[in-house]
Amino acid sequence: MKRCLRLSSIFILFLASCSSPYKKLQTVPAPQGSALAFKPVFDKVLYRGTVNGGFLFKKFHLSGLLFFKTLENGTVRAIYQNEMGFTFFDLEWDHNDSFKVNQVMPRLDRPAVIKTLRKDIELLLMKGLKKESEVVFRDRGKLIFRRLDISGGYAYYVEDSGRLVRIENAGEKSKVVTMNIEGKDQPSGMPKQVFIDHHKANFTIQLTKLDSYADE
Predict the structure, then answer these.
(1) I want to staple 82 with a disulfide (CB 3.0 to 4.6 A). Which of 61, 64, 101, 117 is the partner?
(2) What would the pLDDT profile of 49-63 be if each residue is shown by its tens digit?
């Protein structure tokens, strides 16, 4: 009997772990506004960035400056360098959001790594979103969850009292990335602080905006 109870408990816990973390959200029938109101508009922005993680028994750490720049033709570039000017990666999106890798260091030149970096930046800059797919939910408190379809899952833009406070990437059953946002004073501005936690890939990214170099 005890064995059956233990097995039942394990089974219930397994089902709970497989259920969507968003299942308790309530659909907003006539939502106002759009997540795209939070889409950043900028000329150039500079962040101090640190990357920490581990793979198997190896840990890694990268520290440097992440530079975002919008060119006159609408192209956006994201360049991550160390303080000595060595480039970790140089990524680019044209005005149609077509993606291109201009440069990447050999250590990061892996399809899975480039895919993750691309998705992180696209979530932050709100690129590759299927605008017509937006659905709005509310939790039991005051948070608004604006969900849009992206390749391979969903992007949730979480709003608290009109401010963007979090971005989440999820599949059908679980969260993949949580991006905590602080200091996004204007809807179209870039945040002062970004903390990105990759739940499956086991690494984090911390970005701190350097205002003296920003030109939004």
Answers:
(1) 64
(2) 999 887 655 777 889
Q: How far is CA 76 from CA 33, 94, 107, 170, 172, in A?
A: 25, 6, 24, 25, 30
Please state, in angstroms and rounded to a whole number, the distance separating the CA atoms of residues 182 and 9. 39
**What is the tens place of the pLDDT at every residue in 29-55?**
877 899 999 999 999 999 999 998 876
pTM for the whole structure: 0.86
* Distance, CA of 69 to CA of 85 (rounded, Å): 17
Q: Are 193 and 208 in contact (CB under 8 A)?
A: yes
pLDDT band at 19 (very low <50, low <70, confident <90, very high): low
All residues at 6 or more sequence positions from 79 whose CB lies less than 8 Å from its CB, including other chains: 66, 67, 69, 87, 89, 90, 91
CA distances from 64 to 79, 85, 101, 173, 208 (A): 10, 9, 19, 34, 11
Instruction: Classify burial at 216, counting beta carbons within 10 Å of its beta carbon; exposed 0-12, middle 13-18, buried 19 or more.
Output: middle
Mean pLDDT of 136-154: 93
DSSP annotation of 82 reads -
Cβ atoms within 10 A of the Cβ of 114, count? 16
